Amino acid sequence: MSVEEDVMRIQKKLTKMTSGDGQEQALELLKALQNLPVNLEILTKTRIGMTVNALRKSSNDDEVISLSKTLIKNWKKFLGPNIGKESTPTSSSKKPASKPTIKEERKEEDIKKDKTKHTSFPPANTTDAVRLKCRELLVSALKTDHNDSFEGCATPEELAEELEEAIFQEFKNTDNRYKNRVRSRVSNLKDTKNPQLRTNFLCGALTANKLAVMTAEEMASDEMKALRNKFVKESIDDAQLATVQGTKTDLLKCAKLDSSKCDAANVQTRSADEPMTTFVMCNECGNRWKFC
């Protein structure tokens, strides 16, 4: 059996564990994975890095979390410059190394920064321009001037890729539904009045699969949810009033028309031990008011 097949077999078992199944064998599977000669090609084909990262987030076992971090750290080395390939110079070939100039040092630093900026893990699994642009927008929404970071959690680039992948898997294309879904995630993650949504996603309390399908009401801040509940309650009260048959009375007058042709109705809008509320409606102009 090839290394790739071994990795795929382990990945299937780990995927079931990340969805909530028993994780008793997780540590053994990770140790077996650590002993396999995994290379960049296998990482790209199998996307085992995403699976191990998801397992790390869902597990409560300290050993599983620690070994998962170690595996991901080792695999990330494939993305940078090859290390360990420099040959040891012999005594006959030793030459004094020339000191790099300030200009060369700055150029080298710029190259390193550029690689750090554009390199994410696991390697991007798409070349679609629309999908890549959407990932950039999601990364921008996750990054702020505060540069919040959570130790042991995925980077904004990794989270943006997971979220975009989850949205794409739902629609299987990049049509308007896909674009609108991405736009709504970007808008809500950038909302300064709802920082909790972004924080929950960055620290792992909210998964990419969950955030990908949440409605606007579910993503809203606690303040907005309370305001919506208030409006819903008022609408229900109005609907209840409309269905209650009022009693004709000429004891009350409409403030608009000075008319006495009114209907009065008592409605229980509060708890049972509270007095009922009297609503009055003018039969001529339709004006409504509460009578205290």
Task: Briefly summarize what is shown.
It contains 13 helices and 4 strands.
The side-by-side strand order for the widest beta sheet comes to 1-2-3-4
Low-confidence runs: 82-95, 115-123
Major β-sheet profile: 4 strands, antiparallel
Evaluate the radius of gyration.
31 Å
- Domain unit count: 3
Number of strands: 4
Assign the structural class, choosing from mainly alpha, mainly beta, alpha/beta, alpha+beta, or little secondary structure. Answer: alpha+beta
What's the total helix number?
13
| Series of H and E elements | HHHHHHHHHHHHHEEEE
Helix content: 55-70%
What proportion of the residues form beta strands (DSSP E)? 5-15%
What is the distance, rounded to the nearest whole angstrom, between the alpha carbons of the first and last residues?
Answer: 83 Å
Shape: elongated
Overall mean confidence score, pLDDT: 76
GO biological process, one term: transcription elongation by RNA polymerase II
Keywords: DNA-binding, Metal-binding, Nucleus, Transcription, Transcription regulation, Zinc, Zinc-finger
Main location: nucleus
GO molecular function, one term: DNA binding
